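Quick one: Glutamate-1-semialdehyde 2,1-aminomutase from Microbacterium fluvii, structure tokens please.
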Amino acid sequence: MTSNEQAAARARAVIPGGVNSPVRAFGSVGGTPLSIVSASGATVRDVTGRDYVDLVASWGPALLGHAHPEVVAAVQQAAARGLSFGASTPGETELAELVIDRLQTGRRAEIERLRLVSTGTEATMTAIRLARGATGRDVIIKFAGHYHGHSDGLLAESGSGVATLGLPGSAGVPADIAGLTLVLPYNDRAAVEAAFAAHPGRIAAIIAEAAGANAGVLAPDEGFNAFLVDTAHAHGALFILDEVLTGFRVGSAGWWGLEQQAGQRWTPDLVTFGKVIGGGMPLAAIGGRAEIMDLLAPLGPVYQAGTLSGNPLAVAAGIATLRLADAEVYRRVDAAASAVADAAHAALAAEGVAHTISRAGSLFSIAFRADPVRTYADAKAQEAWRYAPFFHAMLAEGVALPPSVFEAWFLTAAHDESALERIRAALPVAATAAASA
Ligand code: PMP
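--- reply ---
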């Protein structure tokens, strides 16, 4: 039988680092990454045949749990009709209608058009291009610790404050491109105002995760998203809401929907989706008002395209997933998230480990510090080394956590009482490991 070590060694010989996306390599927790052969409901199975309760959920898409029978059947039926046509399909329209319906607040059609792409990276890259095309401006604002995919301009990391343009966050990103991205501290209104004051008439858009969830969970302060919309508009810029991770995961209309329910009244100019919208298949989307979205080719001058965009298998998975993702699904995911977050808190508190649980709807993460986390700087100022022993103790007990302290834990509607019981049983062991680190 193949071991995970053997699978990883074989992979490393032909795939850089043995992985097709870096965090899979267990770089920050050490040890051998799992090589997964199948998954069902709340569990994943590795090459040795061992099952783990999964809190990665494919990094978000598996809202319903892995391999939901109705989603799998929809994909199988679509596959039998042909894998890709390079032409329009009725399914694409159906998915766009489904998404737009979910985003209606009853006031007016805020999201009127949707274009389908294959990855979240493409969605945010296209949203930025649209914002630049619509405004005729070049500079964008993003927040430190927010991830929007790996396109050149969005990898820019924190620079030296408000007035300073960002530095490349990756080798291979030209400084001229990174220099068009201003990186600001999250939840910092003064920094946003100062950036607009320092670059009058140059800022095309602010892009923000609807609720930050890529540096651990960084929830927006109440009213912060509304402030971003108002400030962008006051200066002739657009607001791009990145719901790739939160969209259709934290609620039926994403994080934006939760804020609307809570009485916040604001509308993004453009919104990006990914992950859940494709139910585990490569699918993502950009949405917005017709006047902006219709700037896209073939109607307008902003070019964007894709051989596999709107792929019929991905669309079938997306439609099936969104149709199944009803209020009961969100209730179950919320309840499972609360159960796990509470159990993690209790286990760490019992061992006297300083920690805080950051939450944004059903998304949460643990930070090994006592104080709340509002910014990327806060997230980095923690006893991060406690996570590796915590993670490995969980893994040994049969629970697969995200292999980094800077990631959210993902629950699914398939995390039933028996899955939750396995997590609850493992947490005290992991808390002891974290305490002695
Ligand atoms: N935006 C956000 C908020 C994300 O979380 C991610 C992926 N984690 C992306 C964009 C990029 O999506 P993809 O990995 O599909 O390119």
